[in-house]
Every structure is written in C-alpha cells, then in structure tokens.
Amino acid sequence: MGHGTVVLFTNRVITALLDLHSKYIRRLTNEERARERDWVVKRAGCPEFAPGIYQYDGSTLPLWQKPGLNGNAYWSRHCNYELNIQIGCIGSNLRITDYSAGCTGSAHDALAFRSTAAYQYPNYIFQGDEFAWTDSAYTVSYRTIPVHKAPANLDPWVRAFDKAVSRLRARSEHCNGLLKGRWQSLRGLRISINRRRDHLAAMRWVSACIVLHNIGVEQQEHDWDMAEPPRPDNNQEQAGGEQNIEQDAGARRRSLVEHYRRFRTGEN
C-alpha cells in the first residue's frame, strides 16, 4: 500500500458520506412530529410538554494534541484541547436533526448554539408551537426552554418541573454517548490542526460520523430497507433566527411551570 493511500481512501469515504448529508440530516415529517409529541407526553405525563419534541446539548471532542493554529482557543474547561459540538436530537430514537461542529473548546454552549439551524433558522426546524429542551447553560427563549438556575430553582414547583424535564432532556446526553460509543474516533480525534483546512477536515470528520449515526437509526427503523425515506417540504420560509427566537423570552417557561403545577395538583 502506497504512502498516503489510507488518508486518500478515508477522505473519499468522508466525501461520499457527506453527499448523503441532506438525505439523513433533515427536518422531521409531519408523521414523525406527531409521533414525537406522543412520546413526550408518555415520557413526561404532562400534555403541555408535547410541543417540546427536541433536545439540545453540547459535547466536547478531545483532540490528540494542541493545535498549531490558535491553540489556546481550543482549551476547554475540561483542561484539554477540544472542539465544541452542539447536538439536537429527538427523544424516541435519538436521531440527530440539527448540529454544529465548528466552535472550539473554549466556546460556551450558549455561544456555540448560535451556529445551529435552530438558532439561525428557527422556522426551518420548528413548526407551530414546537420548542427544544436544554440545560441551564442555554438562554431561555420561545423556542428553547432550559432548566432553571439558582435562585429560581429553589422554588419547590420549579424543582419539580426541572426534574420532570430531565426525563426528556437526558435523551440528548444519551444521544451524545451513543454517537461517541459507535464512533470511537470522537473520543480522541487524531487530526493535527495547524491550518484552517485542518480545522475544516475535523468538522468534516464529525459530520460524517453524524451521518453514519443517522443511517444506523433510520435503517434500524426500516429494517435495512435502503429506499428513499419520506422527505418533508423544504421550501418553507427560513426566516433569520434572533428576532424570532428571542420573542416572549421567559414567558413560555413560566407558563409551562404553571401548567405542570396544575397537572400535578389536578387543577383545571
């Protein structure tokens, strides 16, 4: 085998997988959205939680050495050189519907989340009253509902709400664990980042692993039938994110807490 052959073949496989990106990293169909709503209600019990069909969480991808290009920017709170990956998934089967892989390890999850389609194009990801559950590191908005920080979480009903939400939000942790468990390269990526194109190569590697993850999820559901799955209509309006995503910030979460209190106490 000639020098560089393995690298060449690896790049060709990654390119082939990325050609399938739009097929496997896609919006949910109406049937899938309805199924997720049913799953959320069965999981959490509260009917008002049904629109929260997505879970978002950040994860870090360790690098095997300090990058030669802006190396300090990759240093994370885990005391390692890493990439910040944002994953958005659905809870029933852990299929990834949205992600970002370009931020360095020093980036906060709330900042890295701004690179996702959910933030930049919320009308593309969400329909109607849909929203995503997140941890407390994210900013509360109409489309993202994080658990509470102190001192708000000192209230007993807020704590009960956060505990109920954790049954849903934990699925994003499961998704990250499954992704890294399937593709061990994501536990320590051996790509030397010394130039901009090396950083892009690392992003391509992560994207290829996510495509493979979704292939496994979808083919498991379809019993390895490689026929084209149903595709949603992608011609809907894709409005910019910040103005839309910041509307009614906090009000929706307070409403959900109140609905959960009434659900638990049996009030109408």
Automatic annotation (TrEMBL):
The keyword Metal-binding applies. Residues 225-254 are annotated as: Disordered. Its cofactor is a divalent metal cation. Keywords: Endonuclease, Hydrolase, Metal-binding, Nuclease. One of its GO terms (molecular function) is endonuclease activity. InterPro entries: HARBI1_dom. Residues 57-214 form the DDE Tnp4 domain. The keyword Transmembrane does not apply. This is DDE family endonuclease.
